[in-house]
Amino acid sequence: MTLLRALLLVMLVSLLAYTGVVISREGTDFVSAFSRDIARMTWAGQFNVDFLCLLVLAALWVAWRHRFSAIGIVLAVLVLIGGTIFLSTYLLVESARSGGDALALVLGP
Fold this sequence. Notes:
With 109 residues, this protein is mainly α. Helix content is 84%, strand content 0%. Helix 1 crosses helix 4 (70-97).
């Protein structure tokens, strides 16, 4: 669990720094760039569709983990919007709540 938490922290910090640079250069309108790449049918678009599929799967898992309760749905939407920044934070918090039990982390309470 320690290695997972370390990886999550590295991912979170790296992505926050990278996102900060991108926002300072290009602003916050990521939807236009995301959609444009998909519409162009390029490798960047393929990557975006693949990433979107992963986000949907992660969001469904979070909603399922919370038994599709209201908070589970809200958390799922945050996964879709926040991507790895949100999901890594969520997993760090839930790994602490699970007391290091991987099964509890995956399945929920």
